[in-house]
Amino acid sequence: MAFLNAVLKRTGKDHIESVEILEDKDLPAETAGGKAGKLDILAKLADNTKVNIEVQLANQYNMERRSLDYWAWHYTKGIGAGEDYSLLPAVIGINILDFGYIPVEEFHTSFHIYEDRHKEYMLTDALELHFLDMVKFRKQPEKDIANVPLHRWLVYFDKHSPINLIEEVLSMDPAIQEMQKKIDWINGDPALLRSYLRYEKAASDEITRINGTKRETKRETTQEIARKALTEGATEEFVSKITGLDMDTIKRLKIEL
Predict the structure, then answer these.
(1) Does 152 map to a domain?
(2) Same domain, 203 and 121
(3) For the chain, first and last CA: distance in Å?
């Protein structure tokens, strides 16, 4: 509740006072593209609004469409056949990203549906998507943990935060203190800790695979540029300068032409 209130800036009468964590977080294969999916956290608020929270450590260049896919599935499944459309729930997507994605200055961006010529007119509040860019947040010279609850949460979540800053956040935020107690409890339970470490290893393996694919693609592209330059008569020294490839690799590519 505290985290959602911080992200959604719910205060006063809009303050979230109850949240139900939904256990069924699997999406069937009839979602867009025929892919099944597994949500990180799916919650329901007292007014029946659904909130999907996703954490992504590596950029797979599909975050906006993936978010819309998850949003659409939950929105369209909000009512049964023959029921009133007014019963469709609002669906909020919150994406915590450990990479740069939205090309704007702010680390927290949010999206709704507005009329093209009248930006002040929102068609409906049924769609709401948030992106929290941890890379941009880390680069902020000052974290206003005294006045901005979201800053406290992101400092706490960020593995790069200095321990003294985390301790300061813990000293001023009861909700984060409660969360730390839960984490300490998990760390004291061998079975739960093993489960978490398996998840962490799987996440690291996936990031390694993605980064490896990127490096291989870049290497192949660089070598293709070198081949074309050599074919056009460029010297080996010039090709090395523009591609960064070592001379042995360039000589091998020249032999293969």
Answers:
(1) no
(2) no
(3) 63
